[in-house]
Write a structure and sequence with these properties.
The chain is of the alpha/beta class and about 325 residues long. It contains 9 helices and 13 strands. A hairpin with a 2-residue loop joins strand 1 (about 5) and strand 2 (about 10-15). Keywords: Hydrolase, Metal-binding.
Length: about 325
């Protein structure tokens, strides 16, 4: 039986995703709890976002986008559904809690078990009465080398909900730090490491940590590609090649983490397509072949979401294909 994904439009066979996957993006969010008024993607940006995704579908065959805006981040699953329908790109929505500065006040009084029940409710019945069900738990976060006590509870809740529902967990590791502690906590709560993606590892210039996470079975997310103010793509390329050369190609996920409107192409930013237009050509120039590119950009994220290698039913169609499997 073919593995299935839960998208904002309903279940989708993983084998229907014939083109690449963006493993960590945002389509609708609001992170203005601090002083950063630019950290938004609002209804006013929806047309530009839709146009970008439709263009990537036409040019590169973009088949799926994993949208990791969770509770407390301005999540709007109805907006995601409209963007998916209008762009032709399938979208997976998320649930969970971000890192501590974005936690609602009531989390300080709630056990991990009760938080897990909240997540399971969304996964089984949909977000906020919308009927739109999440297909992944994330981006559940921490900052620093070890999660704070509230972050430990929300990460534990994510692991409990994941084991109860069969979903995978994607984390936010602030500036790439704390990934080993996150994995320790998640697996201690019963989650298999191969259902975990540790976020923002391209911001951590520490190949030994990447190897240790991958050897444990977790996915390593190089998911801020193009964010040069945080890390240069030159360093990202070096770190990625080191991970591939150490034999961990099956544990890599790639994305750009568009998390503010200034990153949109319409506003002069790198856009969701920076991975395809800039970074992957540099990876090819470094000697990485198309089979490996397909593994990194399609087969790995599908396996992460489903936990099954059966997500891969053959090579992608030349030039990509529609998310529903029909020709473009």
């Amino acid at each position: 039986m073919n593995a299935s994904l839960q998208t904002v439009s309903g279940p989708l066979p993983a084998s229907a995703v014939r083109g690449p996957v963006l493993a960590h993006e945002h389509l609708a969010l609001d992170l203005t709890r601090g002083a950063d008024s630019a950290a938004t993607l609002t209804p006013g940006h929806r047309a530009a976002i839709t146009e970008e995704l439709a263009s990537l579908r036409a040019e590169f065959g973009l088949g799926l986008l994993i949208e990791l805006t969770c509770r407390g981040m301005g999540r709007d699953v109805a907006a995601m559904a409209r963007i998916a329908a209008d762009s032709g790109v399938a979208v997976v929505a998320a649930t969970g809690w971000y890192y501590e500065p974005f936690h609602p006040a009531e989390l300080s009084r709630t056990s991990a078990e009760r938080l897990a029940r909240t997540l399971v409710g969304e996964i089984e019945r949909g977000c906020g009465g919308s009927g739109i069900r999440p297909g992944v738990i994330g981006e559940v976060g921490s900052h620093g080398d070890r999660p704070s006590e509230p972050e430990a509870r929300t990460l534990t809740a994510a692991a409990l909900a994941a084991t109860a529902t069969g979903l995978s967990v994607a984390t936010h590791a602030q500036f790439g730090r704390g990934g080993l502690a996150q994995l320790e906590l998640l697996t201690a709560a019963g989650l298999s490491p191969d259902r975990v993606s540790i976020g923002h590892q391209d911001l951590l210039d520490d190949p030994a940590v990447h190897r240790e996470l991958a050897a444990a079975g977790a996915y390593i997310a190089f998911d801020t590609v193009g964010k040069e103010s945080y890390q240069s793509d030159r360093v990202r390329l070096r770190l990625l090649l080191a991970l591939l050369e150490s034999g961990h190609a099956d544990r890599v996920l790639l994305s750009c983490d568009v998390s503010r409107h200034g990153y949109l192409v319409s506003e002069g930013g790198m856009g969701y397509g920076h991975l395809f237009r800039s970074f992957l050509p540099r990876l090819r120039a470094a000697g990485v072949d198309e089979e490996m590119i397909d593994r990194l950009t399609r087969r790995n994220p599908l396996r992460f979401l489903t936990g099954r290698d059966g997500a891969d039913d053959g090579p992608p169609e030349p030039g990509g294909g529609r998310a529903d499997g029909a020709p473009r």
